[in-house]
Design goal:
With 260 residues, this protein is mostly helical. The chain has twelve helices and no strands.
């Protein structure tokens, strides 16, 4: 069954959609969309380093994303605003990544697939990494769900409940770094944040509880992934952008639904 490239692409899109749904809900609730976008941009440096050093691009992107999260937290303690710290680090990482690509012969063609995604070229090894990472992130979020929700409601409430809000924020940063790293192959660095934000935003008017919102977001993400692949097959369009386009259409439709 896995010999079909379309089947491998569908399984890859399904795995990414299932893990970005609950994480995307926290991104929406905490207004971290800019951080997700910045992490995706910073992953370009990880891609360049991975290709230049002949190591796994996933490990390179994961390392850069984790370093970025640590630097944002450190700059925040130094008195810089979160928006300023994220903007400086993400654009600096993107610029250094593009310079590294220019200085390394033969990388420009390879980088295109990582910027815009190449889901149809997913291998069995990629599927193992995607589904293994997705299972780990979902398990982490399920384990910390109540603590993360409490910290999302407010720092003071979290401290009153004996929860360290900074620790829960680091959990989200770690999960976000892993998801960005494994989703590079599916939609590319430029569209990862769309998979995090759009399904969760589309699910918000349709749910009454946080758990229901995560479930609806997962359904929207799966529909977008499989439907986007079908549209790409019929119209001969890029698969990654087609997935994001379909999720955007679903968001436009749900925007007319009164919030529950």
């Amino acid at each position: 069954m896995l010999d079909s490239f379309l089947m491998r692409a569908a399984l890859a899109g399904l795995g990414v959609a299932l893990v970005t749904a609950p994480l995307g809900c926290f991104v929406v609730w905490r207004r971290m969309a800019y951080f997700g976008h910045a992490t995706a941009h910073a992953s370009v440096l990880g891609v360049a380093l991975g290709l230049a050093l002949s190591i796994s691009v996933v490990w390179g992107a994961l390392a850069v994303a984790l370093v970025m999260g640590g630097l944002v937290a450190w700059l925040g303690r130094r008195g810089h605003s979160s928006d300023a710290a994220i903007g400086v680090i993400s654009h600096a990482a993107l610029a250094f990544g593009l310079v590294a690509v220019a200085l390394t012969p033969g990388l420009r063609g390879d980088l295109t697939a990582w910027l815009f995604g190449d889901i149809l070229a997913v291998t069995r090894g990629d599927l193992a990494v995607i589904w293994g990472s997705a299972a780990a992130v979902v398990a982490l979020l399920a384990w910390r769900w109540r603590r993360l929700l409490t910290a999302t409601l407010g720092d003071d409430l979290a401290r009153a409940a004996g929860i360290d809000p900074r620790r829960e924020e680091l959990v989200l940063v770690l999960a976000l770094a892993v998801v960005v790293a494994v989703a590079l192959k599916v939609v590319g660095a430029l569209l990862i944040s769309a998979l995090l934000v759009i399904p969760a935003a589309a699910a918000r008017p349709l749910a009454r509880t946080p758990e229901a919102m995560a479930a609806v977001a997962a359904a929207i993400g799966v529909t977008s992934a499989l439907g986007g692949l079908w549209v790409a097959f019929l119209l001969d369009t890029p698969a990654g952008p087609s997935i994001v386009c379909l999720s955007s259409v679903i968001f436009a439709v749900t925007s007319f639904v009164p919030r529950r």
